[in-house]
Model the fold of this input.
Amino acid sequence: MQDRELYQQILGLKSPWSVSKVALDVLQQQVDVFVEHPSGTKFCCPECSKQLPCYDHTQERQWRHLDSCQFKTVMHASIPRIDCPEHGVKQVQVPWAEKGSRFTSLFERFAIQVLLATQNVKGAMSILRTKWDQTWSIVERAVARGKSRKETTMLPRLGIDEKAFLKGQNYITLLYDLDHSTVEAISDGNDTDSGIACLSQLSGEQIQSIEAIAMDMSAAYVKAAKQVIPLAENKIVHDRFHVMQMATKAVDKVRRGEHRQLMKDGDDCLSKTKYVWLTSFENLSEKQQAVFDATYDLQLQTGKAWAYKEMLRDLWTQTSAASATTYFNDWYRRVIHTKLEPMKTVARSIKERLQNVVSYCTHRITNAVAEGMNSKIMSIKRRVGGFRNRQNFKTAIFFYCGGLSLYPQ
Ligand SMILES: [Zn+2]
Done:
C-alpha cells in the first residue's frame, strides 16, 4: 500500500478529499500529510447548505492529528471558499475539524479524554505534546460545545455555596444540582448580588422547578434566594454541616476560655485536648477516649458544651420538621440557662433561622455534594496551576464538574 493510500485510510478521508503527499521528517519526528480536492468540486455554503462552485482558497492551514506511532502527525490543506448569493464569500466546513480549531476532531477527542483522566492540564500537555495555550483552547472549546448542547433540565434540589479563588477575600459563588452533582452556574463574589447573579442564570422554568436549596446560614444567599425563588422561605435548608460547624467552633471557644482560666491556677488538665472535643464521639481513637473519659469526669464547662453539641446532632435525625422544632426548643431551653456564652450565641442564631434548619426533615438535602465537589475543585486549582485569571478557573470547573457533553461530533 502506498503511503498516500495508507493515510487516506487512517484519516478516514472521503471524497472529494484525498491525500496528495506524505512527507516524513525523521529529525523532527513528524509526518506531514497534505490533503486536497479535485478542481471543479462543489461545496456547501456553511449557512444554507446550498451547493456552490469553489470561489477561491484560504492559505494553507495545519491541523494536528493523532500521532503516527511516536511521530507527530500534521494535516495540511487550503480551505475552499464559496460565494453564496445570499451569504457572501464563506469558508466551507472541512469534515476533519471544527471551525477555528488547529486540531482534528479525533485529536481533540483524545485530548479531552487525557485531560479528564489526568485532571491535570500540565500532565496532559506532556502526554499530548501540546503547549499551554493550545491545550487550554481545547478545554475552552469543549466547555463552549458542552454548554451550547446542554438541555434545560429541571432542578428540584439545588445547593449554593462560596468558593475562594486565589488567596484572601476573593470569592466566586457556585450553584450545584444536588441530584446530579454538577455545577450549574458560577458568579463572581459571595454577596447577595453574587447569589442573585448565579440564580438568574437559570431559566424561568428551572427557577419554578426548585423545591429546595441548601446553603450556609449567611444572610447573603438567604436574601438572594428570597429575591429570585418564589416562596423561598419554604425551600431554604440551612446546611447541617455548616450549623454543626458553628456548634463545634463554640465548644472550642469554651475550651480555650476555660483552659486560660485553669492555667492561671496552674491546672493544665485541658492541655492538648483540643481535638478530643472537636471529634465526634464515635470517631475518637482509644487514646483520645481515655483522655476524654478522664477529663469529662472533671465536670468542666468544656465537657458540658461538648455534651450540648452532641445533643444537637440528633436534631437532624428527627422524622419531621415539627418534632425537630420540639427537639430544638427543648435543647435551646437547656443551653440558654447555662453560662456557656459561645454555645448560647449559636443557640440564638439557630433559633432565628429555625424554620430553615428543621426544613431538613422535609427536604433531606445537605451541601455535602457541594463540599465533595469543592475538594475536587481545590485539587483542580492545585493541579491545573497557572490559572492566570478567574475566567480560566470557572472554565476548568465547568470542564471537570459541569456534567457537560464535551466531545466533538
Ligand atoms: Zn448560503
Remarks:
- The CA atoms of residues 93 and 99 lie 7 Å apart.
- The longest strand covers residues 51-68.
- The radius of gyration is 30 Å.
- The chain has 17 helices and eleven strands.
